[in-house]
Each structure stands twice: as structure tokens, then as C-alpha cells.
Amino acid sequence: xxxxxxxxxxxxxxIVAKDKHWMGLxxxxxxxxLQSVVEHINCLAIRPDLVxxxxxxxxxxxxxxxxxxxILWIIL
Length: 76
What we know:
This protein is an alpha+beta fold.
């Protein structure tokens, strides 16, 4: 028996440390965009079997950015 699998892919979120802005642009809020995407996935009528992140999670690769991303991902 074959079962279809629904996969959601999120890519290149480039999360920055809390209270920082991507490339220093005050109107850019990568955390807010990721939060919006996660909320959208959580509201889907048919939930994905798997959510995968590809590309850059953190913009600068610093621990603060990864900790900030971890907080955002936990609600998924």
C-alpha cells in the first residue's frame, strides 16, 4: 500500500540575533517572516508529514542567531 507524503520545505531563513536586523535594514525582520511561515504551516488543513529546512538557518552563523532560530522553530 502506497501512502502519499506531504513535505513542507523552508529555505534560507537567514535568522539574525534577537533585536538585530538582516543586513542592518530596520524594515527587514527575518524572525517575523519565519514565524509567519511556521504559523501558516500549523494552520494547514492537511498538515505536512515532514518539515525540512534547507539553506542558511542563520545569517551570520553566530550562536545568538541559532538560539533565536531555535525559539522560533519550537512552535512548529
